[in-house]
Amino acid sequence: MKFPNDFLFGAASAAYQIEGAYNKDGKGISNWDVFSKMPGKTFEATNGDVAIDHYHRYKEDIKLMAEMGLESYRFSISWCRIFPNGQGEVNQAGIKFYNNIIDECLKYGIVPFVTLYHWDLPEALELYGGWINKNTIDAFTAYAEICFKAFGDRVKHWITFNETVVFTKLGYIQGAHPPAIENDQKKYFQAIHNVLVAHAKSVEIYKELKQYGEIGITNVFTPAFSIDDNLDNIDAANHANNYELYLFYDPVLKGEYPEYVSNQLKERGVFPETTEEEMDILKRNCEKNDFIGLNYYQPMRVARNFDVDSKEKASATGAAGGAYFDGYFKTVVLLDKKYTKWGWEISAEAFVEGTKMLKERYGDIKLYVTENGLGDIDPIVGEEIMDTARTEFIEEHLKACKEAIRQGINIKGYYAWSVIDLLSWLNGYKKQYGFIYVDHDNNLARKKKYSFNWYKGVIENRGENL
Ligand code: BGP
């Protein structure tokens, strides 16, 4: 089977992880510019000041994407390039930079797929409470509207937020992302609510503009499965799916919180402050979403956790194992499964099973795999970067997409993470994901990896030979 002609083969990146030029041409400072410089916060104190200098090399990078045959490129806009203070004055140099990126893509027929928020919040807003402060909702929607108006003539695919569960949980529970707060459930659920309202309002604005493109939201997709048939463990998997999936998709697609979660949050006194108007915004816009994006890396294998005093907490870098923050379940490393060097399970089958769960709950909503890839330390053989483990990984997952499509799941595109080696939030440059290698010892020179030509071939024959 070939992938259908309207299926997009793409690859992805995010502004903070590639651009650099962190204080150039009027860009404001982001929360990550500040956080990454706090001692001990990132791997080997890496930061995005220069990153891979895509800001100055975007022409070379997009030319390589075109050579690879990429049909679509998912990238994010850095909010503080457009609004250095998060709101107020627009920085025209920021608009110009993204116009250049978009035009460069279109020059080669590459479809731009734009994420508005991939975690780099203007520090000016973080200082006033960031996602806890409801003013950030209005600041975000004003920023979204400016982007729709500036770029919407050429950009027809919009993602509002990338992985709400990750930046809020690491920000307010695990303290591993800005604003580096630990174990504050009240703030965690409030931030989620505010993000979801900002999403729904942006969808409303986008649809009112009648630009005839599509808009949705991306979440990390970690479907939970019980490790066995034990009823306690099945209950644990249900709990995990409610807190990690349904909490993030129900308000978007059904306009309400899953009862299972909201009842428990109310009992624990950590249900967010919501207004009638906000709940109405969620409700009246839920059917306007055109798609949801799935960043799929791994599933969760879960068991009920009865050892509530256990100190073994879930890792901030995503490795399987450890107790969930509310103590209810733990994720388990299983001997018969494969794991990456960073302890992430490799399972293409779980992707297919997970998409079936989504279909059961949300019907035929269009899906894009907005990220999927293997973080590895690529072997260098002679002069070549032989990332065959990556091509095997992507092949398995593209086959899983085919299988899901065969079973009636509405998947319309696949974006490998990442188009080029880039800065990992917490793993520096050591954890590689790209089709293109960046030589940090040689002036950030770009080099095609083995996977580059492999993916080019896959795109050329629309996946027929997989
Ligand atoms: C996702 C993020 C990406 C990217 C990826 C890999 O959660 O959306 O920005 O970082 O994970 O993560 P890591 O670099 O931690 O392996």
TrEMBL record:
Protein name: beta-glucosidase
Similarity comment: Belongs to the glycosyl hydrolase 1 family.
An example molecular function term from Gene Ontology annotations: beta-glucosidase activity
An individual GO BP term: carbohydrate catabolic process
This protein's record includes keyword Hydrolase: yes
One CC-aspect GO term: cytosol
Enzymatic class: hydrolase
InterPro entries per record: GH, GH_1_N_CS, Glyco_hydro_1, Glyco_hydro_1_AS
SUPFAM superfamilies: (Trans)glycosidases
EC number: 3.2.1.21
Active site: 371
